[in-house]
Fold:
Amino acid sequence: MAQIQFPSGSGTLDVTVLDNNGAPASVLEANADFRIDAQWSIDANSATALGGQWELSAYVESIGRGPEQQVGPTAVVLLNGGLNYSASITVPAGTLPDDPQPPNSGVYKLVTVLLLRGPFGSITDVAAFVEGPMVRIG
Structure:
């Protein structure tokens, strides 16, 4: 769980990686989709003051040689005055290589990024980053 950075206010972001059967996992099949689920909450004052949209994206960094990239599309969630939000990113099968050989490890650090884009289209200072989990593809 990570804290959402606010100029004033508070919130938390929690991320879970789910395999193609919907079970939490850190070892994933390259030839099957997997999902990154995120839930976040903000305080009541921020909920009434903020406008715009949340943008949730996920990136992998290879341990050893290998891809370093965004995985799956950026999920967009409109602010609705609520305290609780959620979104999922589906990472399509084949996004990351199957059965990598040394010096590629097939192990990746996942980073999930939550940003708030204000009502006039500019990125704000409201953000959160969840580092991890480590995942193995293969």
Summary: The mean pLDDT is 95.
